[in-house]
Protein backbone atom coordinates (compact mmCIF):
# COMPACT_ATOMS: atom_id res chain seq x y z
CA UNK A 1 0.00 0.00 0.00
CA UNK A 2 1.31 3.49 -0.79
CA UNK A 3 2.58 5.63 2.07
CA UNK A 4 0.13 8.25 3.38
CA UNK A 5 0.24 10.62 6.39
CA UNK A 6 -1.89 8.17 8.42
CA UNK A 7 -2.21 4.43 8.73
CA UNK A 8 -5.83 3.35 8.27
CA UNK A 9 -8.29 0.89 9.80
CA UNK A 10 -11.50 -0.58 8.41
CA UNK A 11 -14.58 -1.76 10.29
CA UNK A 12 -18.18 -2.73 9.62
CA UNK A 13 -20.97 -0.76 11.33
CA UNK A 14 -24.71 -0.90 11.84
CA UNK A 15 -26.04 2.65 11.88
CA UNK A 16 -29.46 3.16 13.56
CA UNK A 17 -32.08 5.45 12.05
CA UNK A 18 -34.67 7.23 14.21
CA UNK A 19 -37.36 4.66 13.30
CA UNK A 20 -35.14 1.77 14.43
CA UNK A 21 -34.04 0.66 10.94
CA UNK A 22 -30.36 -0.26 10.83
CA UNK A 23 -28.22 0.56 7.82
CA UNK A 24 -25.12 -1.39 6.89
CA UNK A 25 -21.93 0.69 6.72
CA UNK A 26 -18.22 0.31 6.07
CA UNK A 27 -15.86 2.76 7.78
CA UNK A 28 -12.25 3.60 7.00
CA UNK A 29 -10.49 5.74 9.64
CA UNK A 30 -7.05 7.22 10.14
CA UNK A 31 -5.24 5.53 13.03
CA UNK A 32 -5.14 8.52 15.37
CA UNK A 33 -6.52 9.44 18.79
CA UNK A 34 -7.53 12.89 17.54
CA UNK A 35 -11.14 13.42 16.37
CA UNK A 36 -11.32 13.72 12.60
CA UNK A 37 -13.97 14.87 10.12
CA UNK A 38 -16.05 12.30 8.27
CA UNK A 39 -16.89 12.06 4.55
CA UNK A 40 -20.07 10.11 3.82
CA UNK A 41 -20.87 8.42 0.51
CA UNK A 42 -24.51 7.33 0.75
CA UNK A 43 -25.98 5.39 -2.15
CA UNK A 44 -28.45 2.75 -3.26
CA UNK A 45 -25.52 0.89 -4.89
CA UNK A 46 -24.61 -2.00 -2.59
CA UNK A 47 -21.18 -1.63 -1.11
CA UNK A 48 -20.20 -5.29 -0.65
CA UNK A 49 -20.12 -6.01 -4.38
CA UNK A 50 -21.24 -3.26 -6.79
CA UNK A 51 -18.94 -0.50 -5.52
CA UNK A 52 -16.52 -2.63 -3.51
CA UNK A 53 -13.58 -2.20 -5.89
CA UNK A 54 -13.80 1.60 -6.14
CA UNK A 55 -14.52 1.93 -2.42
CA UNK A 56 -11.34 -0.02 -1.62
CA UNK A 57 -9.29 2.40 -3.74
CA UNK A 58 -10.72 5.77 -2.78
CA UNK A 59 -11.92 5.57 0.82
CA UNK A 60 -8.64 4.29 2.32
CA UNK A 61 -6.92 7.11 0.42
CA UNK A 62 -9.21 9.68 2.08
CA UNK A 63 -8.64 8.02 5.47
CA UNK A 64 -4.90 8.03 4.90
CA UNK A 65 -5.13 11.81 4.47
CA UNK A 66 -6.97 12.47 7.73
CA UNK A 67 -10.68 11.97 7.02
CA UNK A 68 -12.90 9.15 8.19
CA UNK A 69 -14.63 7.80 5.06
CA UNK A 70 -17.97 5.97 5.27
CA UNK A 71 -19.96 4.04 2.68
CA UNK A 72 -23.53 3.24 3.70
CA UNK A 73 -26.14 1.13 1.92
CA UNK A 74 -29.44 2.99 1.65
CA UNK A 75 -32.62 1.74 3.29
CA UNK A 76 -33.90 -1.45 1.67
CA UNK A 77 -30.74 -1.91 -0.42
CA UNK A 78 -27.70 -4.11 -0.03
CA UNK A 79 -27.33 -5.35 3.53
CA UNK A 80 -29.32 -2.56 5.15
CA UNK A 81 -32.65 -3.10 6.85
CA UNK A 82 -36.03 -1.73 5.89
CA UNK A 83 -37.82 -1.69 2.56
CA UNK A 84 -36.70 0.24 -0.53
CA UNK A 85 -38.53 3.59 -0.72
CA UNK A 86 -40.70 3.95 -3.80
CA UNK A 87 -40.06 6.80 -6.19
CA UNK A 88 -42.95 8.67 -4.58
CA UNK A 89 -41.14 8.35 -1.21
CA UNK A 90 -37.77 9.56 -2.44
CA UNK A 91 -37.73 12.21 0.29
CA UNK A 92 -37.27 9.37 2.78
CA UNK A 93 -33.74 8.87 1.43
CA UNK A 94 -33.03 12.55 2.15
CA UNK A 95 -34.46 12.27 5.67
CA UNK A 96 -32.35 9.17 6.29
CA UNK A 97 -29.27 10.97 4.96
CA UNK A 98 -29.81 13.92 7.30
CA UNK A 99 -30.17 11.51 10.23
CA UNK A 100 -26.97 9.73 9.18
CA UNK A 101 -24.82 12.86 9.14
CA UNK A 102 -26.12 13.87 12.58
CA UNK A 103 -25.32 10.39 13.93
CA UNK A 104 -21.84 10.40 12.41
CA UNK A 105 -21.09 13.91 13.69
CA UNK A 106 -21.81 12.67 17.23
CA UNK A 107 -19.31 9.81 17.20
CA UNK A 108 -16.40 10.26 19.64
CA UNK A 109 -13.89 9.83 16.80
CA UNK A 110 -15.53 12.64 14.74
CA UNK A 111 -14.72 16.34 15.17
CA UNK A 112 -18.38 17.21 14.50
CA UNK A 113 -17.85 18.13 10.85
CA UNK A 114 -19.16 16.05 7.97
CA UNK A 115 -18.80 16.18 4.20
CA UNK A 116 -20.79 14.42 1.50
CA UNK A 117 -19.55 12.65 -1.63
CA UNK A 118 -21.74 11.33 -4.43
CA UNK A 119 -21.84 10.43 -8.12
CA UNK A 120 -24.88 10.38 -10.41
CA UNK A 121 -28.07 9.86 -8.40
CA UNK A 122 -25.99 9.90 -5.21
CA UNK A 123 -24.46 13.22 -6.30
CA UNK A 124 -27.90 14.82 -6.59
CA UNK A 125 -28.90 13.19 -3.29
CA UNK A 126 -25.85 14.71 -1.56
CA UNK A 127 -27.00 18.21 -2.57
CA UNK A 128 -30.48 17.56 -1.19
CA UNK A 129 -29.18 16.16 2.10
CA UNK A 130 -26.89 19.16 2.54
CA UNK A 131 -29.90 21.46 2.08
CA UNK A 132 -31.75 19.49 4.77
CA UNK A 133 -28.84 19.50 7.25
CA UNK A 134 -26.64 22.56 6.49
CA UNK A 135 -25.70 22.92 10.17
CA UNK A 136 -23.96 19.51 10.12
CA UNK A 137 -22.82 19.14 6.50
CA UNK A 138 -19.95 21.55 5.89
CA UNK A 139 -18.92 20.58 2.34
CA UNK A 140 -20.14 18.60 -0.67
CA UNK A 141 -18.32 17.06 -3.62
CA UNK A 142 -20.84 16.09 -6.28
CA UNK A 143 -19.95 14.39 -9.57
CA UNK A 144 -22.40 14.20 -12.48
CA UNK A 145 -25.54 14.90 -10.41
CA UNK A 146 -28.55 13.28 -12.07
CA UNK A 147 -30.97 15.43 -14.03
CA UNK A 148 -34.53 15.15 -15.42
CA UNK A 149 -36.05 12.26 -17.36
CA UNK A 150 -37.41 14.60 -20.00
CA UNK A 151 -35.41 16.75 -22.39
CA UNK A 152 -36.92 19.85 -23.96
CA UNK A 153 -40.41 18.53 -23.12
CA UNK A 154 -39.60 15.31 -25.00
CA UNK A 155 -39.45 11.89 -23.32
CA UNK A 156 -36.09 10.17 -23.13
CA UNK A 157 -35.92 6.73 -24.70
CA UNK A 158 -32.16 6.21 -24.47
CA UNK A 159 -31.84 6.27 -20.71
CA UNK A 160 -35.22 6.05 -19.01
CA UNK A 161 -36.35 2.45 -19.42
CA UNK A 162 -32.77 1.11 -19.27
CA UNK A 163 -32.16 2.86 -15.95
CA UNK A 164 -35.58 1.79 -14.67
CA UNK A 165 -34.80 -1.86 -15.49
CA UNK A 166 -31.42 -1.65 -13.76
CA UNK A 167 -32.95 0.18 -10.79
CA UNK A 168 -35.55 -2.55 -10.31
CA UNK A 169 -33.03 -5.36 -10.69
CA UNK A 170 -30.54 -3.80 -8.30
CA UNK A 171 -33.21 -3.12 -5.67
CA UNK A 172 -34.40 -6.74 -6.02
CA UNK A 173 -31.02 -8.23 -5.04
CA UNK A 174 -31.13 -9.96 -1.66
CA UNK A 175 -29.08 -9.17 1.42
CA UNK A 176 -25.89 -11.20 1.54
CA UNK A 177 -25.96 -14.07 4.11
CA UNK A 178 -22.25 -13.60 4.79
CA UNK A 179 -23.08 -10.20 6.34
CA UNK A 180 -26.67 -10.56 7.61
CA UNK A 181 -26.92 -14.27 8.50
CA UNK A 182 -29.87 -16.60 8.06
CA UNK A 183 -32.41 -13.78 8.07
CA UNK A 184 -31.47 -12.86 4.50
CA UNK A 185 -34.30 -14.83 2.84
CA UNK A 186 -37.19 -13.38 4.84
CA UNK A 187 -35.82 -9.89 4.31
CA UNK A 188 -35.41 -10.57 0.60
CA UNK A 189 -39.00 -11.73 0.10
CA UNK A 190 -40.32 -8.68 1.97
CA UNK A 191 -38.13 -6.46 -0.19
CA UNK A 192 -39.35 -8.09 -3.41
CA UNK A 193 -42.99 -7.69 -2.41
CA UNK A 194 -42.50 -3.96 -1.81
CA UNK A 195 -40.92 -3.16 -5.18
CA UNK A 196 -42.59 -1.07 -7.88
CA UNK A 197 -41.18 -0.07 -11.30
CA UNK A 198 -39.96 3.54 -11.02
CA UNK A 199 -40.40 4.74 -14.60
CA UNK A 200 -43.99 6.04 -14.30
CA UNK A 201 -43.17 8.01 -11.15
CA UNK A 202 -40.03 9.43 -12.77
CA UNK A 203 -41.90 10.69 -15.82
CA UNK A 204 -45.03 11.85 -13.98
CA UNK A 205 -43.04 13.90 -11.49
CA UNK A 206 -43.15 17.65 -12.14
CA UNK A 207 -39.98 19.18 -13.52
CA UNK A 208 -37.56 19.61 -10.62
CA UNK A 209 -35.56 22.82 -10.25
CA UNK A 210 -31.85 22.69 -10.96
CA UNK A 211 -29.89 21.44 -7.94
CA UNK A 212 -28.71 24.18 -5.64
CA UNK A 213 -25.74 24.43 -3.30
CA UNK A 214 -26.69 24.99 0.35
CA UNK A 215 -23.12 24.47 1.61
CA UNK A 216 -19.67 24.90 0.00
CA UNK A 217 -19.77 22.65 -3.07
CA UNK A 218 -17.26 21.29 -5.57
CA UNK A 219 -19.14 20.12 -8.70
CA UNK A 220 -17.53 17.93 -11.37
CA UNK A 221 -18.67 16.44 -14.69
CA UNK A 222 -17.57 15.63 -18.21
CA UNK A 223 -18.73 17.89 -21.02
CA UNK A 224 -20.60 15.05 -22.74
CA UNK A 225 -22.41 13.97 -19.57
CA UNK A 226 -26.04 15.16 -19.32
CA UNK A 227 -25.18 16.67 -15.93
CA UNK A 228 -22.87 19.31 -17.46
CA UNK A 229 -25.74 21.81 -17.52
CA UNK A 230 -26.38 21.26 -13.79
CA UNK A 231 -22.69 21.81 -13.02
CA UNK A 232 -22.69 25.07 -14.98
CA UNK A 233 -25.86 26.13 -13.14
CA UNK A 234 -24.13 25.49 -9.81
CA UNK A 235 -21.13 27.56 -10.94
CA UNK A 236 -23.43 30.38 -12.03
CA UNK A 237 -25.36 30.37 -8.75
CA UNK A 238 -22.10 30.34 -6.79
CA UNK A 239 -21.27 33.75 -8.20
CA UNK A 240 -24.50 35.28 -6.96
CA UNK A 241 -24.83 33.75 -3.47
CA UNK A 242 -22.77 33.61 -0.31
CA UNK A 243 -22.25 29.84 -0.72
CA UNK A 244 -18.86 29.10 -2.31
CA UNK A 245 -19.03 26.86 -5.39
CA UNK A 246 -16.20 25.65 -7.60
CA UNK A 247 -16.82 23.65 -10.77
CA UNK A 248 -14.72 21.55 -13.14
CA UNK A 249 -15.80 20.31 -16.60
CA UNK A 250 -13.40 17.99 -18.39
CA UNK A 251 -13.01 15.31 -21.07
CA UNK A 252 -14.23 12.49 -18.82
CA UNK A 253 -17.07 9.98 -19.04
CA UNK A 254 -19.70 9.65 -16.31
CA UNK A 255 -18.24 9.46 -12.81
CA UNK A 256 -15.66 11.07 -10.55
CA UNK A 257 -12.27 10.80 -12.30
CA UNK A 258 -9.19 9.91 -10.27
CA UNK A 259 -7.57 13.17 -11.42
CA UNK A 260 -10.11 15.14 -9.37
CA UNK A 261 -9.56 13.28 -6.07
CA UNK A 262 -6.79 15.70 -4.96
CA UNK A 263 -9.20 18.58 -5.64
CA UNK A 264 -11.84 16.85 -3.52
CA UNK A 265 -9.30 16.40 -0.72
CA UNK A 266 -8.33 20.08 -0.91
CA UNK A 267 -12.01 20.99 -0.65
CA UNK A 268 -12.61 18.75 2.37
CA UNK A 269 -9.38 19.82 4.10
CA UNK A 270 -10.36 23.48 3.79
CA UNK A 271 -13.92 23.16 5.11
CA UNK A 272 -13.62 20.20 7.48
CA UNK A 273 -10.11 20.60 8.92
CA UNK A 274 -9.45 24.37 8.64
CA UNK A 275 -6.34 23.74 6.54
CA UNK A 276 -5.39 26.54 4.15
CA UNK A 277 -5.24 24.54 0.93
CA UNK A 278 -5.91 27.39 -1.46
CA UNK A 279 -9.26 25.84 -2.37
CA UNK A 280 -10.97 29.23 -2.53
CA UNK A 281 -8.18 30.69 -4.64
CA UNK A 282 -9.14 28.43 -7.54
CA UNK A 283 -11.33 29.94 -10.29
CA UNK A 284 -15.08 29.49 -10.31
CA UNK A 285 -14.88 27.20 -13.36
CA UNK A 286 -12.04 25.19 -14.83
CA UNK A 287 -12.79 23.68 -18.22
CA UNK A 288 -11.13 21.54 -20.85
CA UNK A 289 -11.65 23.21 -24.24
CA UNK A 290 -10.13 20.52 -26.42
CA UNK A 291 -6.65 22.04 -26.61
CA UNK A 292 -6.15 23.60 -23.17
CA UNK A 293 -7.52 24.00 -19.65
CA UNK A 294 -9.27 27.33 -19.19
CA UNK A 295 -9.67 29.23 -15.90
CA UNK A 296 -12.78 31.44 -15.75
CA UNK A 297 -13.59 33.58 -12.74
CA UNK A 298 -16.37 34.48 -12.28
CA UNK A 299 -18.85 32.37 -14.21
CA UNK A 300 -20.50 33.48 -16.46
CA UNK A 301 -17.15 34.65 -17.72
CA UNK A 302 -16.48 38.14 -19.11
CA UNK A 303 -14.26 36.28 -21.57
CA UNK A 304 -17.30 34.72 -23.29
CA UNK A 305 -19.32 36.72 -25.80
CA UNK A 306 -22.45 35.69 -27.66
CA UNK A 307 -22.10 35.53 -31.44
CA UNK A 308 -25.24 35.29 -33.57
CA UNK A 309 -25.29 33.14 -36.70
CA UNK A 310 -28.43 33.76 -38.78
CA UNK A 311 -29.73 30.76 -40.72
CA UNK A 312 -30.05 32.91 -43.84
CA UNK A 313 -26.59 34.52 -43.60
CA UNK A 314 -23.53 33.14 -41.79
CA UNK A 315 -25.22 29.71 -41.85
CA UNK A 316 -26.91 28.62 -45.06
CA UNK A 317 -28.66 25.55 -46.38
CA UNK A 318 -28.58 24.19 -49.90
CA UNK A 319 -31.38 22.94 -52.11
CA UNK A 320 -34.11 25.43 -51.10
CA UNK A 321 -35.34 27.97 -53.63
CA UNK A 322 -34.62 31.55 -52.56
CA UNK A 323 -38.26 32.58 -52.96
CA UNK A 324 -39.47 29.76 -50.68
CA UNK A 325 -39.86 31.21 -47.18
CA UNK A 326 -40.15 27.90 -45.35
CA UNK A 327 -37.59 25.10 -45.19
CA UNK A 328 -39.26 21.75 -44.56
CA UNK A 329 -37.59 19.32 -42.12
CA UNK A 330 -38.95 15.79 -42.42
CA UNK A 331 -36.51 13.10 -41.29
CA UNK A 332 -36.71 9.32 -41.50
CA UNK A 333 -37.55 7.77 -38.16
CA UNK A 334 -34.12 6.18 -37.69
CA UNK A 335 -32.41 9.58 -37.57
CA UNK A 336 -30.41 9.50 -34.35
CA UNK A 337 -28.96 5.99 -34.63
CA UNK A 338 -25.46 7.52 -34.53
CA UNK A 339 -26.16 9.62 -31.44
CA UNK A 340 -23.88 7.59 -29.15
CA UNK A 341 -24.75 6.95 -25.50
CA UNK A 342 -26.87 9.37 -23.55
CA UNK A 343 -24.73 8.75 -20.45
CA UNK A 344 -21.17 7.99 -21.63
CA UNK A 345 -19.19 5.55 -19.50
CA UNK A 346 -15.95 5.60 -21.47
CA UNK A 347 -16.61 2.63 -23.72
CA UNK A 348 -15.65 2.89 -27.42
CA UNK A 349 -19.25 2.56 -28.63
CA UNK A 350 -20.35 5.41 -26.33
CA UNK A 351 -18.83 8.04 -28.61
CA UNK A 352 -20.91 9.41 -31.51
CA UNK A 353 -19.26 8.36 -34.80
CA UNK A 354 -18.80 10.52 -37.90
CA UNK A 355 -22.10 12.37 -38.30
CA UNK A 356 -22.25 12.40 -42.10
CA UNK A 357 -24.98 9.75 -42.19
CA UNK A 358 -27.03 11.71 -39.66
CA UNK A 359 -26.38 14.93 -41.57
CA UNK A 360 -27.77 13.26 -44.69
CA UNK A 361 -31.02 12.56 -42.85
CA UNK A 362 -31.26 16.19 -41.67
CA UNK A 363 -31.47 19.70 -43.09
CA UNK A 364 -28.04 21.30 -42.68
CA UNK A 365 -26.97 24.94 -42.44
CA UNK A 366 -23.24 25.42 -42.99
CA UNK A 367 -20.84 28.29 -42.38
CA UNK A 368 -17.87 29.23 -44.50
CA UNK A 369 -14.51 27.73 -43.46
CA UNK A 370 -13.29 29.37 -40.27
CA UNK A 371 -10.30 31.69 -40.80
CA UNK A 372 -8.97 31.06 -37.25
CA UNK A 373 -9.58 28.72 -34.30
CA UNK A 374 -12.93 29.14 -32.56
CA UNK A 375 -13.24 28.34 -28.84
CA UNK A 376 -16.78 27.47 -27.75
CA UNK A 377 -17.46 27.63 -24.03
CA UNK A 378 -20.97 27.62 -22.63
CA UNK A 379 -24.53 26.96 -23.72
CA UNK A 380 -25.58 27.56 -27.35
CA UNK A 381 -29.19 28.49 -28.11
CA UNK A 382 -31.20 28.19 -31.31
CA UNK A 383 -34.12 30.58 -31.85
CA UNK A 384 -36.54 29.27 -34.48
CA UNK A 385 -39.47 30.73 -36.37
CA UNK A 386 -41.55 27.59 -37.07
CA UNK A 387 -44.53 27.36 -39.35
CA UNK A 388 -47.64 27.74 -37.14
CA UNK A 389 -48.84 24.40 -38.52
CA UNK A 390 -45.79 22.68 -36.97
CA UNK A 391 -47.17 22.72 -33.41
CA UNK A 392 -46.34 19.57 -31.44
CA UNK A 393 -43.43 18.56 -33.69
CA UNK A 394 -40.07 17.46 -32.30
CA UNK A 395 -37.03 19.59 -33.19
CA UNK A 396 -33.59 18.01 -32.82
CA UNK A 397 -30.63 20.31 -33.40
CA UNK A 398 -26.99 19.19 -33.70
CA UNK A 399 -23.96 21.45 -33.92
CA UNK A 400 -21.06 19.80 -35.75
CA UNK A 401 -17.56 20.76 -36.92
CA UNK A 402 -16.98 19.71 -40.52
CA UNK A 403 -13.35 19.10 -41.50
CA UNK A 404 -11.97 19.86 -44.97
CA UNK A 405 -12.22 16.14 -45.82
CA UNK A 406 -15.95 16.14 -44.94
CA UNK A 407 -15.71 14.41 -41.56
CA UNK A 408 -18.51 15.72 -39.34
CA UNK A 409 -17.77 15.75 -35.60
CA UNK A 410 -20.60 16.26 -33.14
CA UNK A 411 -20.01 19.17 -30.73
CA UNK A 412 -23.36 19.46 -28.96
CA UNK A 413 -27.09 19.02 -29.46
CA UNK A 414 -30.48 19.99 -28.10
CA UNK A 415 -34.13 19.09 -28.55
CA UNK A 416 -37.51 20.73 -28.11
CA UNK A 417 -41.10 19.68 -28.61
CA UNK A 418 -42.79 22.68 -30.18
CA UNK A 419 -45.86 24.03 -28.36
CA UNK A 420 -49.08 22.51 -29.68
CA UNK A 421 -50.57 25.97 -30.11
CA UNK A 422 -47.78 28.45 -30.90
CA UNK A 423 -48.13 31.75 -29.04
CA UNK A 424 -45.77 34.38 -27.75
CA UNK A 425 -42.11 34.67 -28.71
CA UNK A 426 -40.30 32.30 -31.05
CA UNK A 427 -39.33 29.02 -29.34
CA UNK A 428 -35.73 28.50 -28.25
CA UNK A 429 -33.89 25.19 -28.39
CA UNK A 430 -31.28 25.14 -25.64
CA UNK A 431 -28.34 22.98 -26.69
CA UNK A 432 -26.22 21.10 -24.18
CA UNK A 433 -23.18 23.00 -22.85
CA UNK A 434 -20.07 22.67 -24.97
CA UNK A 435 -16.36 23.17 -24.40
CA UNK A 436 -14.44 22.71 -27.65
CA UNK A 437 -12.00 24.33 -30.06
CA UNK A 438 -12.90 24.23 -33.76
CA UNK A 439 -9.72 24.38 -35.89
CA UNK A 440 -9.30 26.87 -38.75
CA UNK A 441 -10.48 25.59 -42.11
CA UNK A 442 -13.37 23.71 -40.52
CA UNK A 443 -16.99 24.72 -41.07
CA UNK A 444 -19.73 24.94 -38.47
CA UNK A 445 -22.82 22.90 -39.32
CA UNK A 446 -26.25 23.17 -37.73
CA UNK A 447 -28.25 20.03 -38.56
CA UNK A 448 -32.01 19.98 -37.92
CA UNK A 449 -34.09 16.80 -37.83
CA UNK A 450 -37.66 16.01 -36.84
CA UNK A 451 -36.81 12.87 -34.90
CA UNK A 452 -33.90 11.60 -32.80
CA UNK A 453 -34.40 7.90 -32.16
CA UNK A 454 -33.46 6.07 -29.99
CA UNK A 455 -32.58 8.99 -27.73
CA UNK A 456 -36.15 10.32 -27.77
CA UNK A 457 -39.60 8.87 -28.35
CA UNK A 458 -40.76 10.11 -31.76
CA UNK A 459 -43.81 12.32 -32.17
CA UNK A 460 -46.99 10.92 -33.69
CA UNK A 461 -46.87 13.03 -36.87
CA UNK A 462 -44.25 11.99 -39.48
CA UNK A 463 -44.57 15.30 -41.37
CA UNK A 464 -41.98 17.09 -39.22
CA UNK A 465 -41.88 20.87 -39.19
CA UNK A 466 -41.03 23.90 -41.32
CA UNK A 467 -38.76 26.76 -40.31
CA UNK A 468 -38.23 30.29 -41.61
CA UNK A 469 -34.42 30.80 -41.80
CA UNK A 470 -34.76 34.58 -42.15
CA UNK A 471 -36.17 34.76 -38.62
CA UNK A 472 -34.05 32.02 -37.06
CA UNK A 473 -30.57 32.22 -35.57
CA UNK A 474 -28.01 30.18 -33.66
CA UNK A 475 -26.28 31.99 -30.79
CA UNK A 476 -22.89 30.57 -29.83
CA UNK A 477 -20.81 31.25 -26.68
CA UNK A 478 -17.43 32.24 -28.13
CA UNK A 479 -14.53 32.23 -25.69
CA UNK A 480 -11.61 34.62 -25.73
CA UNK A 481 -8.50 32.45 -26.36
CA UNK A 482 -6.49 34.92 -24.29
CA UNK A 483 -8.20 34.03 -21.00
CA UNK A 484 -5.96 32.49 -18.33
CA UNK A 485 -5.10 28.81 -18.46
CA UNK A 486 -5.61 26.37 -15.61
CA UNK A 487 -3.07 23.75 -14.59
CA UNK A 488 -3.81 20.17 -15.67
CA UNK A 489 -4.96 17.63 -13.09
CA UNK A 490 -2.89 14.65 -11.96
CA UNK A 491 -4.10 11.30 -10.63
CA UNK A 492 -2.94 10.39 -7.10
CA UNK A 493 -1.39 7.07 -6.15
CA UNK A 494 -4.27 5.01 -4.81
CA UNK A 495 -4.22 1.71 -2.90
CA UNK A 496 -4.56 -1.48 -4.88
CA UNK A 497 -8.09 -2.88 -4.54
CA UNK A 498 -8.74 -6.46 -3.41
CA UNK A 499 -8.25 -8.97 -6.23
CA UNK A 500 -11.26 -9.35 -8.51
CA UNK A 501 -11.29 -12.12 -11.10
CA UNK A 502 -13.31 -11.38 -14.24
CA UNK A 503 -14.45 -14.20 -16.51
CA UNK A 504 -15.65 -12.71 -19.77
CA UNK A 505 -18.28 -14.48 -21.89
CA UNK A 506 -16.79 -16.90 -24.41
CA UNK A 507 -18.75 -15.19 -27.18
CA UNK A 508 -18.77 -11.56 -26.12
CA UNK A 509 -21.54 -9.54 -27.74
CA UNK A 510 -20.64 -6.32 -29.56
CA UNK A 511 -21.40 -3.21 -27.52
CA UNK A 512 -23.61 -1.76 -30.25
CA UNK A 513 -25.03 -3.37 -33.41
CA UNK A 514 -27.43 -1.83 -35.94
CA UNK A 515 -29.37 -3.92 -38.47
CA UNK A 516 -31.31 -2.53 -41.43
CA UNK A 517 -34.04 -4.89 -42.62
CA UNK A 518 -34.51 -3.44 -46.11
CA UNK A 519 -37.59 -5.51 -46.94
CA UNK A 520 -39.45 -4.42 -43.81
CA UNK A 521 -37.96 -0.90 -43.85
CA UNK A 522 -37.05 -1.52 -40.26
CA UNK A 523 -34.01 -0.46 -38.23
CA UNK A 524 -32.96 -2.39 -35.12
CA UNK A 525 -30.23 -1.45 -32.66
CA UNK A 526 -28.95 -3.69 -29.89
CA UNK A 527 -26.68 -2.61 -27.05
CA UNK A 528 -24.78 -4.83 -24.64
CA UNK A 529 -22.49 -3.18 -22.06
CA UNK A 530 -18.89 -4.25 -21.80
CA UNK A 531 -19.43 -4.81 -18.04
CA UNK A 532 -21.14 -8.15 -18.72
CA UNK A 533 -19.35 -11.17 -17.33
CA UNK A 534 -18.71 -13.08 -14.10
CA UNK A 535 -16.71 -11.56 -11.24
CA UNK A 536 -15.30 -13.46 -8.31
CA UNK A 537 -14.67 -11.20 -5.30
CA UNK A 538 -12.00 -11.70 -2.67
CA UNK A 539 -14.61 -12.58 -0.01
CA UNK A 540 -15.84 -15.51 -2.15
CA UNK A 541 -18.86 -13.86 -3.77
CA UNK A 542 -19.44 -14.75 -7.43
CA UNK A 543 -21.43 -12.11 -9.32
CA UNK A 544 -22.62 -12.51 -12.91
CA UNK A 545 -24.38 -9.84 -14.99
CA UNK A 546 -25.96 -9.79 -18.41
CA UNK A 547 -27.85 -6.87 -19.98
CA UNK A 548 -29.24 -6.35 -23.48
CA UNK A 549 -31.14 -3.27 -24.66
CA UNK A 550 -32.87 -3.31 -28.04
CA UNK A 551 -34.67 -0.65 -30.10
CA UNK A 552 -36.66 -0.94 -33.32
CA UNK A 553 -38.50 1.48 -35.60
CA UNK A 554 -39.94 1.47 -39.11
CA UNK A 555 -38.42 4.15 -41.34
CA UNK A 556 -41.69 6.00 -42.08
CA UNK A 557 -43.85 5.07 -39.07
CA UNK A 558 -43.08 6.94 -35.84
CA UNK A 559 -45.52 5.02 -33.63
CA UNK A 560 -43.78 1.77 -34.57
CA UNK A 561 -40.97 2.64 -32.11
CA UNK A 562 -40.35 -0.01 -29.45
CA UNK A 563 -37.69 -0.50 -26.79
CA UNK A 564 -36.80 -3.37 -24.49
CA UNK A 565 -34.18 -4.04 -21.83
CA UNK A 566 -33.44 -7.42 -20.24
CA UNK A 567 -31.19 -7.60 -17.19
CA UNK A 568 -30.06 -10.70 -15.31
CA UNK A 569 -28.06 -10.69 -12.07
CA UNK A 570 -26.81 -13.84 -10.37
CA UNK A 571 -25.12 -13.96 -6.96
CA UNK A 572 -23.45 -17.08 -5.58
CA UNK A 573 -21.50 -18.06 -2.48
CA UNK A 574 -20.39 -21.62 -3.24
CA UNK A 575 -19.01 -22.10 0.28
CA UNK A 576 -22.46 -21.35 1.74
CA UNK A 577 -24.51 -23.08 -0.94
CA UNK A 578 -26.17 -19.75 -1.74
CA UNK A 579 -27.35 -19.12 -5.31
CA UNK A 580 -29.89 -16.43 -6.28
CA UNK A 581 -30.85 -14.89 -9.61
CA UNK A 582 -32.90 -11.81 -10.48
CA UNK A 583 -34.38 -11.26 -13.96
CA UNK A 584 -36.02 -7.98 -14.97
CA UNK A 585 -37.45 -6.86 -18.29
CA UNK A 586 -39.01 -3.59 -19.40
CA UNK A 587 -40.81 -3.34 -22.74
CA UNK A 588 -42.05 0.00 -24.05
CA UNK A 589 -44.09 1.06 -27.04
CA UNK A 590 -46.06 4.22 -27.70
CA UNK A 591 -49.23 5.68 -29.06
CA UNK A 592 -49.93 9.34 -29.79
CA UNK A 593 -50.50 10.29 -26.14
CA UNK A 594 -48.95 7.62 -23.90
CA UNK A 595 -46.07 5.25 -23.39
CA UNK A 596 -47.21 1.69 -22.77
CA UNK A 597 -44.88 -0.11 -20.34
CA UNK A 598 -44.79 -3.80 -19.52
CA UNK A 599 -42.38 -4.70 -16.70
CA UNK A 600 -41.52 -8.18 -15.40
CA UNK A 601 -39.59 -9.27 -12.33
CA UNK A 602 -38.63 -12.86 -11.51
CA UNK A 603 -36.46 -14.00 -8.60
CA UNK A 604 -34.98 -17.47 -8.24
CA UNK A 605 -33.22 -19.35 -5.47
CA UNK A 606 -31.11 -22.33 -6.59
CA UNK A 607 -33.02 -22.28 -9.89
CA UNK A 608 -36.47 -22.33 -8.27
CA UNK A 609 -38.79 -19.35 -8.76
CA UNK A 610 -39.60 -17.74 -5.39
CA UNK A 611 -41.20 -14.51 -6.67
CA UNK A 612 -42.72 -13.33 -9.93
CA UNK A 613 -44.70 -10.22 -10.82
CA UNK A 614 -45.72 -8.17 -13.85
CA UNK A 615 -46.86 -4.56 -14.22
CA UNK A 616 -48.72 -2.85 -17.08
CA UNK A 617 -48.64 0.95 -17.06
CA UNK A 618 -49.83 3.82 -19.27
CA UNK A 619 -47.57 6.84 -18.87
CA UNK A 620 -48.47 10.27 -20.22
CA UNK A 621 -46.10 11.56 -22.88
CA UNK A 622 -46.88 15.20 -22.11
CA UNK A 623 -45.14 16.59 -19.04
CA UNK A 624 -47.21 18.04 -16.23
Key words describing this protein structure:
16% helix; alpha+beta; 624 residues; ten-stranded mixed β-sheet; globular; 10 helices
What is this entry, summarized?
By secondary structure, the protein is of the alpha+beta class.
Task: Describe the structure in your own words.
The protein is of the alpha+beta class. The N and C termini lie far apart (53 Å). It is 16% helix and 36% strand. The protein has a ten-stranded mixed sheet with strand order 1-2-4-3-5-6-9-10-11-12, with helices on both faces. Strands 25, 26, 27, 28, 29, 30, 31, 32 and 33 form a nine-stranded antiparallel sheet that branches. α2 crosses α3 (121-132). A hairpin with a 3-residue loop joins β31 and β32.
Cα-atom radius of gyration: 25 Å
In percent terms, what proportion of residues is strand? 35-45%
The total count of strands amounts to 33
Amino- and carboxy-terminal Cα gap: 53 Å
pLDDT averaged residue by residue: 92
